Amino acid sequence: MAQMLDATKVPVNRPNSPVRWQRAKERADTGGVQVFCVGGDPRVWAVTSASCPGAAYIVEIRPDAAPTCQCKAATKKNDPICVHRAAVLHRLGMLPIVHAMPVNVVPLGVVGAMAAD
Ligand SMILES: [Zn+2]
Known about the structure:
This protein has 117 residues and is an alpha+beta fold. The protein is built from 4 helices and 4 strands, in the order αββββααα. The protein binds zinc ion.
């Protein structure tokens, strides 16, 4: 049974943010993580490890709570995000969409106008 996520214990340096979900999904892609529905139940998934060949973790999708995973990031570090959950949520079309946020794109004229206000 996957450990329940306790939101009060989420480390401050591991926020539940769309950007971190996107990065986790990218790590799942580059790590060759594979996702398998277990027994035809769309709430239970087996997800292969990105770092440990031959290993897999169970991810449970729950309608009333955050998804759970058996991996170390979820159970030991209490991280609300891991590559396994990101891979499953992406498969289900439930991953938060993150649009690239360019840096320093504000034209200087706009900055000048803003400063004049
Ligand atoms: Zn995991």
